[in-house]
Each structure stands twice: as structure tokens, then as C-alpha cells.
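Q: Here's a chain of 372 amino acids. Please give me its 3D structure as C-alpha cells.
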Amino acid sequence: MAGILAWFWNERFWLPHNVTWADLKNTDEATFPQAEDLYLAFPLAFCIFMVRLIFERFIAKPCALGLKIQANGPQKAQPNAILEKVFTAITKHPDEKRLEGLSKQLDWDVRTIQRWFRQRRNQEKPSTLTKFCESMWKFTFYLYIFSYGVRFLKKALTSDLHYYYIMELAFYWSLMFSQFTDLKRKDFAIMFVHHLATIALITFSYVNNMVRVGTLVMCLHDASDFLLEAAKMANYAKCQRLCDLLFIMFGLLFISTRLGLYPIWILNTTLFESWEIVGPYPSWWIFNLLLLLLQVLHSFWSYLIIRITCRAIAKGKAGKWNPLHVSKDDRSDIETSSDEEDSTPSVSKSGHDSTTNGTNGYLSGGVYSEEH
């Protein structure tokens, strides 16, 4: 085990050529990040997850009920043993051939069977109450950690900054685990990569003593995240004007920070200025590659936000302006992985929430529909 740890913490990988671990030991005159601090993130991540359960149960849920948000689910499919067996054991999305076979076996028309499978899939979706509680938890944490972290932008490393780093790392570890139990969204794989990149960036910046850059990156990301969660909460509470306003604020802040400040300020410093100061070394390359990966994700999500906004403006020309009022085609790019309801024009798409973010907190769209 000692040999593995020595190999993993190799100085020539983690540090510049003229720096050793001994140089980063704490002294009376200076305080440095210590790699062993990162181990605290794992038990803290478990604690954060438990706090979340308590928060959603005893704080978020009463708030939701106070706003008259009920735990009503979508319309249930009528019991049918044959279709249920196909659904659970074979496929949730039967093809045309199977639909025709089931139609003959049950003496039902194909459209009725298709509707049954849609309703059955929607039964597994979370209620609006569940989604509100999840958004309220993320809103509360993002707002708290942003307010806490922004204080350090003009400070040197202190014990509080150690705490800030470990809290952020523990939160993203908790998201890594809870992502498998949270609302399933179409961008699951993208967000999984995002969480991995974020955890790696926090770890690398802490071990490398790049805490200034790390603090800036974390604060920049947290600055807009809580606005989206607030917009989603407003949507679930059917406060559409507030939802629209919050979404516009989120979109403007997201694009300006992640397509403006992030590449011009942070990437320029880590890629070019740090090259001149300390030069490249193995972990420096990985650190900057992860920062570039984040920029790719920022660009993708910004593109979706801009496209939704443009389509909303175009749609608003024919009726009431609503930046979240988008068509079914828009929503198919951003909604949860569940299917849409029957496409009768006058009927809202039950089972989709208008700001359920296909980017897990980075995008929303759709007029407020009848929630399940």
C-alpha cells in the first residue's frame, strides 16, 4: 500500500520541477493545502446526503404544500397483466411489430396500446412535489455556498477556505451518488462527465495549491445555478411571470460568465500566464484539459439556452411573450428521458415540467404544463 501511495503522490506528476511536498508543509508563516484533507470529503458527502433527506422532508415539503403543490402523479394506466409483463420483462418501448401482435392478442387498437405504454412510463416519473423538493435543496445549497465562497475572492488561503473547498468537493461527490436516484434526465451521461470533471478539478487545484483559480471557478459556476433552481421552483408553484424573469436572469448570467469571464479571465490565466510563471508539468496538462472540457460543456449548454430563447421569441410574435414557451420539438431536446403524452394540440403534455432541466440545472423550457 505504501508503494501505491508513493507512486500516486509522485512529486514530478503533481508539482512543478522545482517544488517538493516538503515545500508545501504548513509553517507558522504560511499555510498550504494538504492533500490528506481531501479524504474528509467522503464522510462529509454522506452527511450532506443525509442533510438533504432531512431538508426535503421537513423543510422543502412543508413549503411545497404551503404553495399548494401536491404529490399528484400522472394518470395511471389501467391494470393489464399481459401489457405489464411486456413492460417489466421485455420492453418499455414496443416496436410496431410487437404493438400489432399485442393488438391481436388483446383485441385492442394499436393507438390504445401506445397510450397505455405512455401512461405506464409516466407512472414512474416523480411528482411535482418531489421535483420542487429537489430544486429547493439545490437552490439552498448553491445560494449558501456561493455567498460563502465569494468572500474569499480577495483573501489568502485560510482555514475557512479549506472548509469551502472540502464542502464543494463533498457536495459534488454527493451529486455523483444521488444522480442515480434523482430525476432521470436525458443529459445523464453529460452531467456524469461534468461531475467527474468538477471533482477532478477541485482535487487537482487543491493539491497543486491553485486554490485561487479553484475558488474563482467554483464561485463562477455557483453564481447562476441557484437562479435556475429558483426558476424551477417558481414554475412548480405556477408563478409563471416570476419563473420567466428568473430564467432570463439565469440565461444572461450563465452566458456572460461561462462564455465571457471563464475563458477570458480564468482560461487565459491557467493556460498562458501560468505557463510563463511555472511552466507545464503532468498535472498542469490534466488540470487545463479539464478546464477546457468544462468550456466545451458551457458552449453546448449556452447553445441550447440561446436556441430556446430564439424559438420562444419567434413563438411570442404570434401570442403572449413567454421566454419559456417553446414547442414540443424544443422540449424534446431538454426534457426528461420519459416520453411525451398524446399529442392532442389542446391538451398539455402531462408528465413534463416546463423547467425540468435537460441539462440538470443548466437549461429549462416549455410553457407551464399540467404537472404530474
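Q: Can you summarize the key feature?
A: Residues 98 and 109 are 13 Å apart (CA to CA).
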